Task: inverse folding
């Protein structure tokens, strides 16, 4: 390092550089969650300029600095500069109070400068501020976007954070010598697919249950149900995107959810706000074009219920698990609507108890993981560690009640008319008992790290149990020659 360089302060941008997100958009999402009644005023605040908008948002909500996704290569560069005795500044277009929170949390910066209600410290404004303060070429600067070109040109040494090959080439062409601080990894296309959660579409296989148990053989009906599956899946994906956007803080504190595209910063918040209506429009559009209007009504009902769950109800004690169980049962009912099949009360009763048990096991596994972190409450949920004994009691009981409903159903007149050998259905009962109790044993041992439905899709024993259950159904449906 040259003598001159050792004396130059290192100035670091915040949004997209030090953190893999944008504090303005984080604040906007917080406003939606905490004070939704204030959202209509946002366009009016923006008329007063971006600096005014940032100040108005900061007056109402402030992101948790500890929960933001920091870029480790940039932090390492800052630590290196500090060890060399250089002055390090956080200079950002984010509102001053947000910048102060980040500075206090990291305890790395000698000075923190952000936007105020009059000045938006971005691009040329920031370049003028730093050149007035230190002089042309008398500071080094770490940025990440086109808005940072005036600063790179005015700096003594330019650094590009989270650099893509195209941005590096563009920066070298316009600025000259630049250095990458961390490179962009991972495909955006893969991140988009991950955000849509196609693996969760397996839950929508429940739409096929009603026509299957109703012994429907009409090809056209099955085509309708298949289209309904995709319409439901795209609509569900839109809500998953919304859910991830509104759950950024709690997801970043979770052992696996912190790697989701929006929580990690692999996809930006504005991109997510675009994905949400596109995915929702795809699902509803499929339904309107190809399916009966009453299924579209059912789909809109699902959208309202699951959005209410994502935005509000999932944070309510007991309401969340009842809603989860209801949403699974709703899928079964919607499959009946798509196939024009009446869903029996037996199936509704079984579904409600069975999926209530699965909802409880999901919360139970989260509480077990929370206990290991030595904290009292699951982030973003209404449960305390002290609730674990109640859930351990009620959860398995719900699953066992589902098996009881199934056993009572096997003695009903409906079974005698639908199946040639109804006695074969009794083989399903011990399979269900085994699978339900195994899930709870795994959850108690903190070995159930996924949604129980997704776990079942990937777990070899669960798949084998599923094949055995299907074998019992086939055996019951086919007349025996003896």
Result:
């Amino acid at each position: 390092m040259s003598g001159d360089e050792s004396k130059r302060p290192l100035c670091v941008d915040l949004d997209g550089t030090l953190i893999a997100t944008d504090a303005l958009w984080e604040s906007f999402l917080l406003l939606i969650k905490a004070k939704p009644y204030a959202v209509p005023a946002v366009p009016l605040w923006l008329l007063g300029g971006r600096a005014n908008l940032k100040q108005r948002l900061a007056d109402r909500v402030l992101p948790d600095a500890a929960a933001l996704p920091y870029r480790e290569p940039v932090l390492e560069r800052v630590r290196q500069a500090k060890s060399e005795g250089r002055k390090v500044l956080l200079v950002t277009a984010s509102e001053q109070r947000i910048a102060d929170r980040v500075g206090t949390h990291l305890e790395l910066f000698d000075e923190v400068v952000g936007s105020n209600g009059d000045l938006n410290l971005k691009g040329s404004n920031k370049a003028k501020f730093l050149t007035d303060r230190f002089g042309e070429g008398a500071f080094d600067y770490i940025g990440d976007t086109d808005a940072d070109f005036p600063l790179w040109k005015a700096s003594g040494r330019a650094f590009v954070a989270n650099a893509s090959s195209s941005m590096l080439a563009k920066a070298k062409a316009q600025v000259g010598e630049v250095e990458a601080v961390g490179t962009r990894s991972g495909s955006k296309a893969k991140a988009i697919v991950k955000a849509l959660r196609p693996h969760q579409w397996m839950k929508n296989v429940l739409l096929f249950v009603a026509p299957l148990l109703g012994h429907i053989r009409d090809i056209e009906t099955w085509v309708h149900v298949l289209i309904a599956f995709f319409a439901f899946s795209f609509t569900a994906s839109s809500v998953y995107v919304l859910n991830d956007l509104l759950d950024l803080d709690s997801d970043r504190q979770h052992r696996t959810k912190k790697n989701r595209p929006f929580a990690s910063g692999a996809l930006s918040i504005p991109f997510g706000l675009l994905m949400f209506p596109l995915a929702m429009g795809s699902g509803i559009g499929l339904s309107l074009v190809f399916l009966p209007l009453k299924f579209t009504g059912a789909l809109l009902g699902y959208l309202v219920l699951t959005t209410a769950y994502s935005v509000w109800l999932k944070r309510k004690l007991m309401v969340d698990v009842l809603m989860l169980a209801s949403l699974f049962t709703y899928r079964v009912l919607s499959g009946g609507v798509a196939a024009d099949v009446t869903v029996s009360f037996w199936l509704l009763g079984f579904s409600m108890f069975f999926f209530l048990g699965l909802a409880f096991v999901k919360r139970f596994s989260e509480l077990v993981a929370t206990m290991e972190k030595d904290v009292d409450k699951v982030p973003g949920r209404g449960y305390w560690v002290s609730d674990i004994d109640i859930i351990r009691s009620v959860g398995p009981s719900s699953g066992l009640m589902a098996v009881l409903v199934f056993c009572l159903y096997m003695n009903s007149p409906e079974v005698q008319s639908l199946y040639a050998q109804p006695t074969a259905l009794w083989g399903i009962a011990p399979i269900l008992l085994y699978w339900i109790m195994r899930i709870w044993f795994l959850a108690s041992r903190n070995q159930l790290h996924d949604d129980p439905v997704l776990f079942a899709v990937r777990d070899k024993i669960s798949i084998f149990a599923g094949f055995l259950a299907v074998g019992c159904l086939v055996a019951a449906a086919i007349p025996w020659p003896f």
Remarks:
- The mean pLDDT is 90.
- Residues 181 and 330 are 49 Å apart (CA to CA).
- DSSP finds 23 helices and six strands in the chain.
- Strands lie at 10-12, 88-95, 111-115, 140-143, 157-163, 178-183.
